[in-house]
Design a protein that fits this description.
- This protein is about 30% helix and about 20% strand.
- The radius of gyration is 24 Å and the shape is elongated.
- Helix 8 runs antiparallel to helix 10 (about 365-375).
- It is an alpha/beta fold.
- An 8-stranded mixed beta sheet has the order 10-11-13-12-16-20-17-18, with helices on both faces.
- It has 14 helices and 22 strands.
- The protein has helices spanning about 35-40, 45-55, 100-115, 130-145, 180-205, 215-230, 235-245, 245-250, 305-320, 365-375, 390-400, 410-420, 455-465, 500-515, and strands at about 5, 20-25, 30, 65, 75-85, 90, 95, 120-125, 170-175, 230-235, 260-265, 275-285, 325-335, 345-350, 355, 385-390, 405, 425-430, 445-450, 475-480, 485, 495.
């Protein structure tokens, strides 16, 4: 991953391949953002005019390259758009309104990706607080991400060399950051821990399903747990049979790659609260007997994005040393059609003891989650949050960049939504209408795994709620839209696996540790 350092060096004398500056969209045209004063001075204070001549407006995501002025050791200036210029003063105290953290994060990501192949860059973006340092650092580390494991020659794998393209930006000096300031150093350290784990989640999502089987995923989790002092327990197919995990076994029964349930436990000695995170880990989803139509299978390796997010969040919490207990449950299975696959009309007895009539084998995520939710409930945590690429209906409702938040407690739903927005992950609170529960009534079992077609994402949430222990606060994140980006990269988001919900889960753990989350 890109190496980050805080630097008080002046931009003109810094040896680098490029100097990155910010440009905002002002009322009268582009405005050079704070942090780039030395660069602007070298252009005799006319940098904004030069950029405008080159077509720059300061719009978010816009990128303009121009030769560095005389006397600079870096040959290139890269101006990246920050969006609208802040209003200036605000509030009764007349405090300056700085640039939004997400605007900084996205701008840094755009620049980092554009500088792929460079050895070193200096970022002279607005750094007016530890929060800005953290946001810019996250944008750089996430924006520079590249998944090249399967490209080029095998001997290149793992050595950092470019395969069929340019290597990620190798090093960044964050100008204006204070190397001796504890808050600034802490912001960078947090960004590194969270982004390394988020990028690990992206790697897992991008791995082909012939390599990332449930057993392989479990092995990766075991290795990471050992490295970071996290307790781990893996239930294989025999242990799942013995334990009565009918949902996970039913979904995984059609595949030669047998299912797993992985439990990761991080406990801080001063922890007073316990969070449980539950992730859907369908390493490949063919739809089972209810086979997906042509054109809907190609990206189904991403159906384990929820488990990847939970895995990354638990490891990040351990690396940050948060004073909270966090248990992660990874419900891992491959959903395939075969002679041993679950059929429409079958009835499964779940780990909770409830029976489920399977009306559609492509509604499998809720089945594996149901077992994991009940297992998590047995430890009576203070709250449970599950994460899943669960329904196409949620994509129809919220699009490809926003995930839905459902909960059995309105205040907790609001808290999760606010945490997501705070870290820059678009989310939207969704209801759990009671009248939709009736559609899942079954004549042969306690509940069916399908209900009304309209409001299908909400129906799935209602199904999951049935398997949360009584009195336990719970939220469900349906990340079907933002988990996998099939379009071009934007901001700090790459094509492919995104690591959606990792930062939200980490923030929830931080708030819980600080006593600020219920």
């Amino acid at each position: 991953m890109t190496a980050l350092t805080l630097s008080t060096a002046a931009a003109p004398g810094l040896r680098a391949d490029a100097i990155v500056i910010g440009v905002a969209k002002g009322a009268q045209g582009p405005v050079v953002a704070p942090g780039a004063e030395a660069v602007d001075k070298a252009y005799d204070g006319k940098l904004a005019g030069v950029l405008e001549t080159l077509g720059a407006s300061g719009a978010e995501g816009e990128l303009t390259k121009l030769p560095a002025p005389a006397g600079f050791k870096a040959p290139l200036v890269v101006a990246v758009g920050l969006g609208a210029q802040p209003a200036g003063k605000d509030g009764e105290d007349g405090e300056d309104v700085g640039y939004d953290a997400e605007a900084l994060r996205r701008a840094a990501g755009v620049a980092a990706r554009a500088l792929a192949g460079s050895k070193k860059a200096a970022f002279a973006l607005p750094v007016d607080s530890p929060g800005a340092v953290g946001a810019i650092s996250e944008g750089i580390l996430l924006g520079a991400y590249s998944f090249d494991t399967y490209k080029g020659n095998a001997q290149d794998a793992g050595n950092g060399k470019a395969k069929n393209g340019k290597a990620p930006l190798a090093e960044v000096a964050l100008l204006g950051g204070k190397p001796r300031d504890a808050a600034h150093k802490g912001a960078v350290a947090r960004a590194v821990a969270v982004c390394e784990e988020l990028n690990r989640a992206r790697d897992l999502i991008n791995m082909p399903p012939n390599d990332l089987t449930p057993a392989a995923f479990a092995g990766i989790a075991q290795a990471a747990a050992k490295e970071h002092g996290i307790k781990v327990q893996v239930l294989d197919d025999k242990a799942l049979v013995k334990g009565g995990y009918g949902g996970i076994l039913g979904v995984g029964g059609g595949s030669a790659a047998t299912p797993r349930l992985v439990k990761l436990s991080y406990t801080h000695p001063k922890a007073e609260k316990h969070l449980a995170f539950v992730g859907k880990g369908i390493t490949y989803d063919s739809g089972g007997i209810s086979l997906k139509p042509a054109g809907h299978n190609e990206t189904m390796k991403c159906d384990m994005s929820g488990a990847a997010a939970v895995f990354a969040a638990v490891v990040a919490a351990a690396r940050l040393g948060l004073e909270v207990s966090v248990t992660g449950w990874l419900a891992l299975a491959e959903n395939m059609p075969s002679g041993s696959a679950v059929r429409p009309g079958d009835v499964l007895r779940m780990y909770s003891g409830k029976t489920v009539e399977v009306l559609n084998t492509d509604a499998e995520g809720r089945l594996v989650l149901a077992d994991a939710l009940w297992a998590a409930s047995q430890e009576n945590p203070d709250a449970i949050v599950d994460v899943a690429t669960l329904t196409g209906a949620m994509m129809l409702a919220l699009g490809s960049r926003t995930f839905g938040v459902m909960a059995n407690d309105d205040a907790f739903r609001s808290a999760v939504h606010e945490a997501a927005e705070e870290v820059g992950e678009p989310a939207w609170p969704m209801p759990l209408p009671e009248h939709l529960r009736k559609g899942m009534e079954s004549s042969v079992a306690d509940i069916a795994n399908m209900g009304e077609r309209m409001g299908g994402g909400l129906v799935a949430g209602l199904f999951l709620r049935e398997f949360v222990g009584e009195g336990i606060t719970w939220a469900h994140l349906d990340i079907a839209g933002p988990a996998f980006n099939e379009g071009g990269p934007f901001g700090y988001t790459p094509k492919g696996g995104t690591g959606s919900a990792v930062r939200t889960l980490v923030r929830l753990a931080e708030l819980t540790a600080a006593g600020d989350l219920g």
